[in-house]
Amino acid sequence: MNSDMRPGSSRMRLRGLIRKEFLQIVRDPSSIAIAFLMPIFLLLLFGYGVSLDSEHIPLALVVEQPNADTADFTAEFDQSKYFVTSYYASTREAEQAMMAGRVNAIVVLRRDFARTLRRSDGATIQLIVNGVDANTGRIISGYVQGAWGSWLAHAAQKRGEVLQVPVQMQQRVWFNSELRSRNFLVPGLVAVIMTLIGALLTAMVMSREWERGTMEALLVTPLSMREVIIGKLLPYFILGMGGLVLAVGMSLFLFEVPLRGSLWVLFAASALFLVTALSMGLLISTVARSQFVAGLIALIATFLPAFLLSGFIFDIGSMPTVVQVITHIVAARYYVAILQTVFLAGNVWGVILPNALALAVLAAVFLGLTWRNAHKRLE
Amino acid sequence: MNAVNQVTAPPAPASRDNGVALVVSQLSKSFLIGKRRIQALHDVSFSVRYGVVTGLVGPDAAGKTTLMRLAAGLLVPDSGAISVLGMDAATESLAVQGTIGYMPQRFGLYEDLTVQENLDLYADLQGVPEAARAERYRELMHMAGLKPFARRLAGQLSGGMKQKLGLACALVRQPALLLLDEPTVGVDPLSRRELWDIVYRLVREQGTSVLLTTAYLDEAERCDDVVLLHEGRLLDRGAPAVLRETMRGHTYRVTVAGMDKRVLQNRIAQAPGVMDALIQGDHVRVVMESDAPVDFAALCPAAVGIEAAAVAPRFEDSFVALIKAKTRGDEVSSAQMTTTTSPPLGRATAEGSPQSGGVPAGVPLAAVVRERVDTNQVQQRPNVPPLPNPLPAGERGQDQSARPVIEVHNLQRRFGSFYAVNNISFTVSRGEVFGLLGANGAGKSTTFRMLCGLLPPSGGTLRIAGADLRHAAAAARARIGYMSQKFSLYENLSVAENLRFFSSAYDLSGARRRQRMDWALQEFELASMAELTSGDLSLGYKQRLALACALMHEPEILFLDEPTSGVDPLARREFWSRINALAGQGVTVMVTTHFMEEAEYCDRLAIMAAGEILTMGTPGSIKAQARTAAQPEPTMEDAFVGLILAHEQQGVAA
Q1: Which terminus of chain A is more solvent-facing, meaning fewer CB atoms within 10 Å of its CB: N or C?
Q2: What pLDDT was estimated at residue B24?
Q3: Residue B358: exposure state from Cβ atoms within 10 A (0-12, 13-18, ≥19)
Q4: How much of chain B, in percent, has pLDDT values that exceed 90?
Q5: How close is the nearest chain A Cα to the Cα of B8, in Å?
């Protein structure tokens, strides 16, 4: 194609396109909403509303014959921040409460608790856990064991002894020492948000031009397809980075997620991922010519995988092998790994570089496909 | 002007292509829609001269837009080629796009950008040098009358102004060839006239070549050259005056004192040798197949005292003649289809099923159906249902003296502070065809929605068939039929399924439903395609099916919202002959339209603008208002434009 024949310069055409795009961004609240309101909404929802930690678990305590020993034992539960206790006179009543969903676990202290306590084979307590939500069930049973263990230690202390356990575990939790699920949810969420901003934004604005018939007019100007693509990528890259700054700021200052790596690595990786996400959006727009279809495809092909298959909530290592293979084409997967590392561990190049490379490869693939599929044609 | 010419001088005509701006040679293009291949253009060849306005004329689905897009390099032809200013549109599309101006159907404007910002954008994209812009903008703003609105958002402009801004954007770098796709759809007649003035000034002052598409046949007469397309094929080409002159001596104006015009039209249309008969205000306009002298008294013995006068031919006459000649040609080539004896009405299509018509294999069924339709009803039965028992004029008069079927008094509808309909009053009698004429945004559709009980009025009273719509909307609705602009068909259901659904929506069941469905299939000649998916029907057939659906419950009042936009002139004639028959049976018909010529078919009409009725009366009396010494024979459009101008001046004065 002989581009010398075209009047004007590429710079002038790009300037026109980009200026137009920014004017539209300013005037049309929907892009602003996607880039800035959606991160705020999602972060607040996940930061406050969703927590994988279990606290305030409703626990039923059945003490068949209350006395000093049982009071000593149950005090351990009453004082724990993990449990909200309620007392029932009989196992039957407690079971009814569990059926009705009022409690998630029952601890039964038998009539002979005080007596058997002092025997050599020790006392038995019964724990009934609601296992419908397997994850919560495991957590509850762990917590109960923890409470029981710490009661044993206290009891030994009171008697002036040291609890004799042959093997002692010295536990250190690295990276997220408080074990706050928010600390890894929020960085993962940033990845989901960036996926949405990138893919949804470009897919929607391109299809909007098709819908309103303006694309047809654009195509019959001396613009080249390269200019059309750059003219869309650049403005929404800037908008997306704005959304990123907002999301990172909220993570650091509102949710107090530690940032152990450098901010520059974080932004560089995010820029790379944003290009990948924007290219996915552009690729979608080469197939979908209505905003409705483009929005749906963007949600199903980019947002859901980013949510479910990126390791953001669900550990990739425990997925079936087939699904694990599929996760390799989910760009968010690499970005989540980088984000969680940079936020919680630091600049661990051994993690960051391979993942960044994978992102670069995906960006090249998506852009290349867009390049191949986008013609200055209507069909 | 000098600065602009220096910067963007169009390539010198003669140097490139012997005075031809665009050459279309043996162009074919088809699209795959679902599993069906639609042939949009079929072996079309023509050329467009430099420095003139060429009109690409035809109904919807003629292939006009496809041809424009091929010329702009937006599509690649299946075979054949388009050469634009000496360059191949498919292989050198970027170079072509650097020299032409193109305005797509919806003007290609960014509605959330201001007028100035739209111009800036297109100036950047078209590479207009900064130094030349101020002068060019001044010219364009002046030309389009947009100066006072430079800072207004394009989305807030009226239809006519959007159209002019779209044109200004296409002209921002003076193009050698300007392509305008349906530039005048949805704009009022006044704006249409202004657009034509601009286009001709461009051609005259700057030597621009213009190719535009239009479905309005009256507009075609304003072009220097026309190219007639019909169903993807070239019908004819040439100067409109030349094409029109072929019909000289074929056209008459016929009146019979004391005879209803609909009865007269029906009689004449069925007489031998008559190609076309149209109601035109208070008379019937007749087009004969030959230019031999006609004895109308012999032609139509029932009409006592018939008077006929020769009138000037119109462009539409030649278009209709061409389509009929073409379909007749098709008929001869597929010999067994021709039947010289007139079959009883409503039978022919049912008997001669499309597949039996000697049609070559591999042709899409819908296309065959369309061909057959043209041949059948156009050739042998220009008018489908005969009037049962033509009422003498006196009786009709008596009918009209009864209580009006529709009474509208000081009707208002407000949206916020904006009056979409402002204080309108009118009445419609039984069996009357009443038209609402106006541009987009005049308040026609809002009025209609109130009449149908879909939108509560903000003020005034409204009585339909004696029932106040505010209190008895449901009762009134059972007595009205409504056919909307988009036809409201379920396109993925078959013809029969659509009919069945609409009957059940109107509570018809059992024997009654069967009877009505049989009636619809017979009456509208849909029996042979009862099982076809309605989305695959041609536009004319969709329109027919939509009318059938609206008539399933035998309504007393029929509302038609822009019923014939986009269909070809033959389908429009056929549609109106049905409407006339219904009116003859006492059905009251209300119709909205922006086709000026269609207004002629109405008994009475109201011209609306900005929510008000500017004038009301018979087509003849409305045209008479516009009669001046300079304009002894004003058209409906002349009358309309005159009224709008007078209204605007009034507004300025007040």
Answers
A1: C
A2: 94
A3: exposed
A4: 28
A5: 9
Name A226's Cβ contacts closer than 8 Å, sequence gap at least 6: none
**Model confidence band, residue B329 (pLDDT cutoffs 50, 70, 90):** low
> Is B11 strand, coil or helix?
coil
The predicted pLDDT at position A148 comes to 82
Q: Is residue B61 scored above 60 in pLDDT? A: yes
Q: What region, left, alpha or beta, does residue B81 occupy, with left being phi > 0 and alpha being psi -120 to 50 degrees? A: beta
Beta-carbon separation of B127 and A24 below 8 A: no
> In chain A, where does the domain assigned CATH 3.40.1710.10 lie?
57-157
Whether B116 has a pLDDT exceeding 90, the answer reads yes
- Per-residue three-class SS string for B405-466: CEEEEEEEEEECCEEEEEEEEEEECCCCEEEEECCCCCCHHHHHHHHCCCCCCCEEEEEECC
Q: In percent, how much of chain B has pLDDT > 70?
A: 85
Contact B102 A217 (CB under 8 A): yes
Whether A26 and chain B come into contact, CB under 8 Å, resolves to no
Predicted confidence (pLDDT) per residue in B379-422, tens digit: 333 344 444 444 443 344 444 446 788 999 999 998 888 888 99
Please give the structure tokens belonging to residue A184: 């890894």
The secondary structure of residue B147, as a DSSP letter, is G
- Mean predicted confidence (pLDDT) in A203-207: 90
Shortest CA distance from A377: residue in chain B: B74
B125 vs A224: CB contact, 8 Å cut-off? Answer: no
Specify the 3-state DSSP secondary structure of A222: coil
Report the phi/psi class of residue B278: left, alpha or beta, with left for phi > 0 and alpha for psi in -120 to 50. beta
Q: What is this model's ipTM?
A: 0.77
CB atoms < 10 A from the CB of B627, how many? 14
C-alpha dist (Å) from residue B598 to B2, B278, B433, B539:
46, 10, 11, 18
* Sheet hosting strand B557-561, strand order edge to edge: B480-483, B557-561, B588-593, B433-437, B604-609, B612-617
Section B180-192 average pLDDT: 82
**At the topology level of CATH, where does A57-157 sit?**
abc type-2 transporter like fold (3.40.1710)
Mutate to test the interface with B, among A221, A223, A228, A375 (most CBs of B within 10 A): A221
Domains along the sequence of chain B with CATH: 2-242 (3.40.50.300), 245-380 (3.30.70.100)
Give, in order, the Cα–Cα distances in Å from A138 to each of A37, A105, B178: 36, 11, 74
Order of strands, sheet of A105-109, starting from the edge strand that comes earlier in the sequence: A83-88, A57-63, A105-109, A125-129
Please give the structure tokens belonging to residue B183.
């530039």
**Structure tokens, B264:** 């007269």
φ and ψ at B460, to 5 degrees? 90, 175
Residue B214's SS3 state is: strand
Per the CB < 8 A criterion, the answer to whether B322 and B336 are in contact is no
What pLDDT, on a 0 to 100 scale, did the predictor assign at position B184? Answer: 82
| Number of C-beta neighbours around residue B53 at 10 A | 23
Asked if residues A313 and A187 have their Cβ atoms less than 8 Å apart, the reply is: no
